[in-house]
Amino acid sequence: MAKPRGRVARAIRNLRRRLAGLRAEWRISLDPKSAGEARLVSAQLTVISNASRYHALLLPIIGLAIAFNFAQTMPWIRVLAWWIPVAVLFGGSGLLGRYRPPPDPGLAPHDVARVAKGFTLTTIVLTMVWCAMMPVLWIPGDNFNHVVLVLIIASSMASSASVNAPHLVSGTICMWLYGLTLTLTPLLAEGYVNPFFAMMAIAFWISMIAQMDSNYEMTRRMLSLQDERAGLIVNLKRAKMESDAARDRAEQASLAKSQFLANMSHELRTPLNAILGFSEMIHADIGGEKPGKHKEYAKVVYDSGHHLLALINDILDLARIEAGGLDLREADVALEPLLAEMLRMMDARALGAGVALQCEASQGMPLVCADERALKQVLLNLLSNALKFTPTGGEVTAFAFVEEDGAVAFGVRDTGVGISEGDQSRVFEKFGQGRHDIVTLEKGTGLGLAIVKGLVAAHGGEVTLVSRVGEGTSVTVRLPKERSLAREALQVAS
Predict the structure, then answer these.
(1) Model pTM greater than 0.70?
(2) Domain boundary among 240, 267, 287
(3) Cβ–Cβ contacts within 10 Å for residue 378, how many?
(4) 162, 266: one domain
(5) What is the pLDDT of residue 254?
(6) CB 208 within 8 Å of CB 179
(7) Average of pLDDT values for 374-384?
């Protein structure tokens, strides 16, 4: 007894799962919730629309032929009572777009749900009007009339099982309307049902429901596969674009690496050659017969070593910035005394170059939350560049002010040789020296502004450069307004 009970229980569970699945699919047909469900429903309605696109034109004409045939055996008014609604509703639905594809599948789910409900309602009304043919045109006792009507409704039912099957709600309701019309009309018109006819009608009804269910499943799977394929194609295109972008970035990184190594090897080789060459001259006692010559050679060796150390320090700083290893030690920093301190550090160099140093800082500048050492390095690099490219008699000005939105800005302005527009885009790159470098006696490493940009970016700020050849250059650092701290007015340190 256990086995039969087990089979019954499994059958009940399978039936419950099937009913639950039908409820879910019924809900999706009328009220899709997700984008995937919306695309599926839109595709189902599109299939039905494409399959029935000519019904709005053909069915009124076919209906007119049927009406003309039955008008031979019944009053015209009775025939027209059925045909006129058919012509008006089918023709009107065609003009309103019933047989055109629904909106784009990219619409929101609630928009697709609205279209699906309107589509289903229109299908039900049109099916009811067409099925009204059988009770309206039925002539009791006329077997030829009965056979013709049964064949028309049965063929329409078979057509609906194919055309409306992709959309579960529309297809199911249409099957019930055709089935009820086919089985109940003889009972209502004749008062009795021929047992053979009733059995054949019910069997045909069941077979059409099974056919519709099969068509629905096949269409649903096909549309789901098409949607998955479209999604895969989109993902593949996106992956290809990302792969191409990654390859481009890798190629650019490789090119930048090669350029960096080439520039760095040149920059390192120059002072090293000087160190080795003059050290060898001292070792070989070349020029020793001239008083002070070895002292001059030692000075060259010292300067080259100092330049080499500065270059290595710059490279290490830049590498630490690019690797994200820069730890900001943030504190409340007053910019006015900081600018004054940096200008004092550059006084001797400016005096030797015959360049005047100026300071323009607004009174009562707010404090900024920043790494003081990093701000000093930014100002030193900017001042060093400005002095390097400002001829004798020129001016270099360190400035600081508060912008309208409360953000703090500071920087350095000079009256030097300036930078051409073609070079301005590359001066912030590693070894990105402008053309003016070739006319200066003091050769730089080309890393100063790259370090400035990295340090400012670490604070969330930005650097802008304005320059005109022969008129000078102005570099401005803007820190985010969130780093500005209100305080009492501070006097500029003297």
Answers:
(1) no
(2) 240
(3) 29
(4) no
(5) 76
(6) yes
(7) 88
